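Kindly review this protein for my students:
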Amino acid sequence: KTLGYKISSCHLMAVSSRRNKEKMFKLYNKNTLLKGLLVVCTAVLLFPLHSSAKESETSEMKMVQHVYINDDFVGSLTDEEDLQSSLEEKVENTKAAYPDAVINADSQVTLIPEHMFKEPDRDSLVIDKVIHDLKVKADAYEIMIDDEVVAYVSSKADAEEVIKSIFLQYVTEKELEQYEAGKQGKVNDTPENRVTEILLSKSLESKAAHVDPAKLIDVKEAVKLINEGTHVNAVYETKDQETLADIEDITDIEMTRLLELNPDINEETKLKSGTELQIEVPVAYLDIRVEREVIK
C-alpha cells in the first residue's frame, strides 16, 4: 500500500507536471503569437512613415543659384529675379554717371543652379554683397607703349585717332597718308618729297579692354598725357643759400609734391649746401624720328 501510494503519488505528480507543461506551452504560443502580431503591425506602421519621410525630404529640396563674380564665389540664393533687378539698377546708375561709356556687367556675374536640401543664405545678404563687390566696367581701348598702358579711351576709333595725332606732330597729314599707302605697296610715281620711315623708340599700339569708366579719357587728354611722358625718381643736391621755393622753380615740382617726396623737411626747413632731396624728372614715353626722301 505504501508502495502503491508512492506510485499513485508519483503518477499524480507526473500528470500534474505534464499538465503544467501543456499550460506553459499554450501560454508560450500565445505570447509568441502576440509578439509576432506586434512585429507585423509595427512593420506595417513603419513602412508608410518611412515613405512619408522620404516624400517630405524630397518636397523640401529647393532650386538654389550659386553666385560667382568672375571666378569668386559670393553666396547662394533662391530668387534670381531680385538679383537681376539689383544688377540692372547698378548698371543704370553707372550709365547715368558716365553717359558716353558703354557699360556692361553681365559677363562678370555667373549663376550655377543646383537642387539642395540645405537652406541657402539670405537672398538680401547675397545681393548686397554682389552689388558691393561688383565693379561695373566699360568697354574701352587701352593705348600701350611697350606693353605699358598709358591711357584708356572709349572706342577703337578714338584709339586710332590718338595714335594718328601723335604722328601728325612730326609729319603732315598728306605725308602720313602717302607713308601708309607706301607700306601697303601703293607707291606714288609723282616725284616729290616723301616720308620713307617713321621710327619709334618704343612700340605704340592699342587693344580692346574693360575698365572702370572713371579711367576713360578723350582723345585730346590722351595725346596730352602721352606728350607729357612719365616721371622717374632722381636726387637733387642743393647749392648754397637755396630754398625750397628756389628748388620748386628750378625743378617745376609743386611744393606739396616736394614735401611728399621728402617727409623729413617742411617749408620752414633751412637747407644746407649739399643736402640731397628726392625729386621727379619728366621722361618722354617715346621718341619719334622721321626719315624723308628729298627730291631736288
Summary: The radius of gyration is 46 Å. Confidence is low (pLDDT under 50) at residues 1-18, 20-58. The helical segments are 2-60, 80-97, 123-133, 156-167, 173-183, 219-228, 244-251, 255-261.
